[in-house]
Amino acid sequence: MQKPSTIQRLLTALTFLLAVFLLSRAPVDADLWWHLRAGQTMWAEKSILLSDVFSYTRAGAPWINAFWLSELLLYELYSLGGYFALAAFVALLGGLTFHVVSRNLKGHPFVDSFIVLLAVVTAAPIWGPRPQILSFLLVALLDAWLRRSPRRLWMLVPFFALWANLHGGWIWGFLLLAAHIAGLFVQSFFQGEERTPLQRQALRLLGWTALSALAVGLNPSGLTLWALPFQQVNVSLQIQEWLSPDFHRVDFHPLLWMLFLLLLSAPFAKKPLNWPQVFKALGFAYLTFVAQRNIALFAIAAAPLLSEWIDAFIQSLPHRTSRPPQNLSPRLTSILNLVLIVVLSLAILGNLYLVSQPERVDENYPVAAVKWMQTHHPAGRLFNSYNWGGYLLWTLPEYPVFIDGRADLYGDDLIGQWHDVINAEENAPAILDDWDVKVILLEPHWPIIDVLKANGWKVEFEDKQAVILTR
Q1: Any residues with CB less than 8 A from the CB of 336 and at least 6 apart, and which?
Q2: C-alpha span between 394 and 317 (Å, rounded)
Q3: Of 101, 167, 192, 265, which is the most exposed, with the fewest CB atoms less than 10 Å away?
Q4: What's the whole-model pTM score?
Q5: Whose CA is closest to 381, among 57, 63, 31?
Q6: Could you read off the pLDDT of 28-49 as tens digits, one per residue?
Q7: 98 to each of 105, 107, 332, 383, how far by Cα in Å?
């Protein structure tokens, strides 16, 4: 029988590789393209974009760009290795994130590997080529650090200063800290002998959290960055990622499995409860049911608690002594382990190569319609699909868009106008006239298409994915 340390190392390696494999997917995301375009523009101009230069509806308006470092990174990756580099980055960052989670688990090695992989498939529906996956990694790192009762709390200040220049998800870090601090206070009431140390720890952490809130201002937009998460909540309620999870979709079922396992294992939780981790899991579960984009945060926060409770359940079972199996020779064991790791690594590379082929990416976008636009150059302003706004910025930079995925920039009014147009509301023709729209590029199913056809707009191009109309 292999030594536990050898098994642990093998399980750690296999869990990491399986996480990378499960999170290997085509670099397809509506927001990827405007991030790439912003990165390209900043590399070319050697300056940070802080106003809109991509649309005609918000041209010149201040843009709180909390993603500028991530955008430079994504564009540089694309420049070096195209779609393959983007797909590999997404997968490897996922493997690293859940490796951090796995290092945070202290239960049975096989059970912990199962929990980590369950967390991976739970997070998979929203894992994609966007700066937010950097925030998921930082949440995992912050949670792991807090569980070790750190002494150097000053490190929170540079940590959040960096985060504020990578992605707007730094707000998740403060929610994690708030849950941890609240959990420490509650836990102090159940541990009389530890009450004073726990409360002191919570107060010190609260003080450094307040300083970290100021450190968020160390970015090109300053403390106005604090407005960003609240603007997004206000304007994004009609956008897919801000909707609650649709459990008719099978890929959201692992979220239910994690929740049910937590409920089933809760009666076996050790006393006193790990209140900081309970509050984190409950808090991010709440956010997940409000908006599916938070599902990875729940998976990261719930995994340590699930490991702890399932391990307590296993410990409660009667243990039977069993005859140890025959040992394999150390050399043969090492060879078998190496072969297994190499085979899985090759499978990952092969899968990344397949999912990053241009045709796998192009099938999700109006490639033929874009080619028609590039060939015929219809004159006038373009009214476009919300989901294709970023893609059009990338492929048709000569056409400023009506809207793209920067919901915080456009606000309620413009998003509302876009919805009124595509749904052929009574004010739709007036909106198109007010913005002097001459070209329409939308999915064929929107009601406005038939209305425009009946009112003299000319169909220039149409296929199953897109339709182009002009006037």
Answers
A1: 328
A2: 58
A3: 192
A4: 0.93
A5: 57
A6: 999 999 999 999 999 999 999 9
A7: 11, 16, 30, 41
